[in-house]
Amino acid sequence: MLSSVVIEQSAQGNVTRDMYIAFLSQAFYHVSHTVPLLMSAGSRLPAEKEWLRAALAEYIEEEYGHHEWILNDIRACGGDAEAVRNGAPGRAIELMLAYLYYRIERVNPLCIFGMVHVLEGTSVNIATPIAESLQHALKLSEEATTYLRSHGALDLEHLKFFASLMDKVTDARDQQDIVHTANVVYALYGDMLRALAEVPDGTAQ
Question: Phi-psi bin for 46: left (phi > 0), alpha (psi -120 to 50), beta?
Answer without folding.
Answer: beta
